[in-house]
Amino acid sequence: MATEAAPMDEKAKRMRDLLSSFYAPDPSISTSGSSISASFDNINSTSFDADQYMDLMIKKSNLEVLLQRHVQMAAEIKNLDTDLQMLVYENYNKFISATDTIKRMKSNIFGMEGNMDQLLQKIMSVQSRSDGVNTSLFEKREHIEKLHRTRNLLRKVQFIYDLPARLQKCIKSETYGDAVRFYIGAMPILKVYGDTSFQDCRRASEEAIEIIIKNLQTKLFSDSESIQARAEAAVLLKQLDVPVDSLKDKLLEKLEQSLDGLQIKPEEASLLAEQNDSSNDAESNEQHPAKIHEDAVRGFSEAMRAYREIFPDSEERLFKLARALTAMHFENMDLYIRKRVSAADFLRIFRIIWEDVVLMDEVLPEAELSDLSAEAAQVTVKKFVARTFSHLEQDISDTILKFDINQKEAVEEEVLKVVLEASKKAGLQGTTDIFQDFRQLLDENIGIFVKMKDLIIGWIQNGFQDFFRSLEAQFLVLSGKTSSSKEIEGGLVEGKSSDKIHAGLILVLAQLSVFVEQKVIPRVSEEIAASFSGGNSQAFENGPAFIPGELCRVFHAASEKLLQHYIDTRTQKISVLLRKRFKTPNWVKHKEPREVHMYVDMFLHELEEVGKEVKQVLPQGTFRKHKRTDSNGSNTTTSSRSNTLHNDKMTRSNSQRARSQLFETHLAKLFKQKVEIFTKVEFTQESVVTTTVKLCLKSLQEYVRLQTFNRSGFQQIQLDIQFLKAPLKETVEDEAAIDFLLDEVIVAASERCLDVIPLEPPILDKLIQAKLAKSKEHNNNNNTVSS
């Protein structure tokens, strides 16, 4: 047993040492560390004592713990054996690969030493021959170099002798830049030999340079010279060591004064925006205003570049000048777009401004003109979008107001229909045009427009939202519903009082609101969804994006308001007529009726005008007359009352008949089916006319209740109402309600009558027939006169 245990212990120790040597990063550190932390129970230590460790384990542990430790150590030994085996295999492969590599290197290097010796012999041969060539050509090369230096010296001497003549030629041709370059190039020689060999040349050259300096100074302060030419003169003077610092303020003031000529003024913007497509020759293009402006700005930029080099301490002032010109450009652009400007012209002017900014930014990048221009461009484009909507609103308002509507034209010449169709066309065509303009903004490839694309889409959506809201408010102003345009932000037309506004115009506005709700808003919504969807949230800070549902509700409510306003306006006019009729006479002393009163004709005439107006503007509805027979008991009661009156005529006195008739009328009302008088107004001809008639009859009833009648007055009311029945029934669609209201007028008159005795039916029919004959004769005469 002992003989077998010793080899196993030696094997384990050897494996442990191998693993420790492989995994220890530094053997010295590992050894020192193990010696310091050595302990009798540390199995990985180099000073580990197995016997002492076993004695300790036997003393401390029982049999079960020893068996567990045995199993654990056996597993560890097995793992170590496996790891060692893998380690040996991996290193063995590396050793084999290294051995093969070394063998290949030996075979490749074999014979290289001889080749290197041959190469060295050839290099030595080439070197010796090269030295021989250099030795043989040395004297000739030295001679050639000497001749070349002599030639260059002669050229310089010739240049010095020719310098005065060159300077004089430059003075004549005004090429002062070449003259300064020639003189500065000759200065080193003139300084050394100017007092001896080249004395005359130096004196003549200095005289020519003095003339050049004077000419440059004259050019520097000449108002006729361009900015770029003056800047070049200043640079040349500084190169000639002429002090120009004292001229800095004057030069910069001249540069500042030139800003006025570089502005794109509103009255000149249209000329700059024109495209010179008719001529293609270079001479005509040079005379084009846009080309002239570009050259002027380019000269201004070059002047700033030159002044920056000449006066380094003037950078801040130059920055201010560049920013001032940029700000002036956008201020003038704001003035330019206040009038009607197409998107194409707007973009042409914007491109010119942006090119100016790029030119100046290349010269003065520290001025941050791009950032300044980007902020100003956002403001300008936003204003252009908003003013485009304002112009469209103005167009629609002008279309409505350009027709001089009076009472006769509105009825006879169908002006209302013309106004409505023109307004519809203005709305549809206007939205189409501004969509085309806005597409040009989005298609523009200037960098700033590409960055602003989402903002522009947001402004367009928000602009449509505000436009329709403003248009709805504008309709209310035009109709007189709103008293003043001050209540409406951005209103374009002063509010008018209702008595100065033709009622037909209100009806046109009501129908136009329906058209906007049903046609314009859905079409705009489709266009936005197709081409202008998305947008930046920053564009919606001042209001919501385009919400078609909300706008449809707004215009639906506006159309109902305007339609009711039209009915109210017409009813008020007729009510004034009725009020005058009932307040003027003394009804207690009224004479016996001899004919239908003239106010009936006026009343019917007003209703006729209403009918003609609605026929021009509103569609015809489903016409179903609600006759009196639709109400239970109404015909029976009326018939029985008529038979009773006819029988009473033979057997009762007048007073008894009147009391009986009044009693039967009240009794009939108890058995009548309740009639709806005021129903919702529809956008049809019949509904509007019927509602107007109902309101007028209700007003007539109230005026009757405010008066006291004698017998003749009551009979006059009876005659007038009886005459109204036939024409009103032909006009309206709800005969039952009209019959009811006419009966209510008679009942109200009877209640306010001191002696209720109605006219006999024969007399009533006779007076009505007389009135009809008279009306027919009057109409025939009018037709004869008109023909």
From TrEMBL:
The keyword Membrane does not apply. InterPro entries: Vps51. It is found in: Golgi apparatus, trans-Golgi network. Its main location: Golgi. Transmembrane segments: none annotated. Residues 631-644 have a biased composition (Low complexity). Keywords: Golgi apparatus, Lipid transport, Protein transport, Transport. Residues 273-282 have a biased composition (Polar residues). Pfam families: VPS51_Exo84_N. It comes from the Eukaryota. Belongs to the VPS51 family. Acts as component of the GARP complex that is involved in retrograde transport from early and late endosomes to the trans-Golgi network (TGN). Component of the Golgi-associated retrograde protein (GARP) complex. This is Vacuolar protein sorting-associated protein 51 homolog. The lineage of its organism: Eukaryota, Viridiplantae, Streptophyta, Embryophyta, Tracheophyta.
